[in-house]
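hiii so um. not sure if this is the right channel but i have a protein structure encoded as tokens and i wanna go backwards to a sequence. like what aa goes where. can anyone help
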């Protein structure tokens, strides 16, 4: 029996597109959508503002402090990193690296040649992404594990990311979405693919691109589950990256 034109097309296509393939494509599209919504940019900024100035009357103009207070601009320093939205004790919170949340301590008093300036410090953390743009506060931090948990005033309504229960095998594919060098927007998402490489001391190691700002990204398996939080990289080769294993994440979140 001869095949009609339509039958021939169906016969050619079917071997390459099975119901399983269709389900895989739908799952990939769904997980990519969730990946975008669950990934956030974390900006942690500590600023100082001159609050009070005192001077030794024998030094300079008696109005030196007044001039200085008017002239001193606010000074700030900070970090930018990535994060992931998870559910913790019934609330949607952001999980990231501790060094993203922490900003170096700034002295409260500066003295030089008879002039003493007291400053007021302000620490602000802003979390933004496809699903939110909100301020956050540190609810838990562990510098040894290099993990930080952030809480929102108004938690977003986002399906949270899930932490894995099983390790990928060496050479298994992994991926993450992040904000390297602060690049994140509502209209694009940077997603990187790589391989699980194994263990390096108490960290897990990946062959995947990473750089400044990637810290705090959730590295995921092919099911979209978090297997690690990215924390550092090899300075000479930015495709060797290290992270906190999911076992540390579960210990931290208890």
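sure thing!! here u go:
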């Amino acid at each position: 029996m001869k095949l009609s034109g339509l039958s021939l097309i169906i016969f050619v296509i079917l071997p390459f597109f099975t119901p399983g393939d269709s389900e895989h494509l739908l799952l990939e599209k769904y997980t990519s959508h969730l990946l975008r919504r669950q990934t956030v940019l974390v900006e942690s900024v500590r600023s100082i503002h001159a609050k009070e100035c005192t001077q030794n009357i024998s030094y300079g103009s008696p109005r030196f402090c007044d001039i200085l207070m008017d002239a001193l601009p606010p000074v700030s320093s900070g970090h930018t990193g990535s994060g992931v939205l998870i559910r913790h004790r019934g609330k949607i919170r952001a999980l990231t690296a501790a060094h993203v949340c922490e900003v170096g301590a700034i002295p409260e008093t500066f003295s030089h040649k008879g002039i003493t300036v007291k400053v007021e410090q302000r620490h602000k953390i802003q979390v933004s992404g496809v699903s939110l743009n909100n301020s956050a506060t540190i609810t838990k931090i562990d510098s040894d594990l290099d993990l930080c948990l952030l809480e929102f005033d108004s938690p977003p309504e986002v399906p949270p990311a899930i932490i894995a229960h099983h390790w990928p095998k060496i050479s298994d594919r992994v991926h993450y979405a992040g904000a390297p060098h602060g690049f994140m927007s509502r209209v694009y998402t940077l997603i990187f693919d790589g391989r699980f490489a194994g263990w390096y001391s108490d960290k897990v190691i990946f062959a995947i691109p990473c750089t400044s700002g990637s810290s705090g990204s959730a590295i995921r398996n092919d099911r979209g589950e978090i297997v690690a939080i990215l924390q550092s990289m090899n300075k000479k080769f930015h495709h060797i990256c290290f992270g906190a294993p999911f076992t540390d994440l579960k210990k931290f979140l208890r």
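oh and The CA atoms of residues 3 and 252 lie 63 Å apart.
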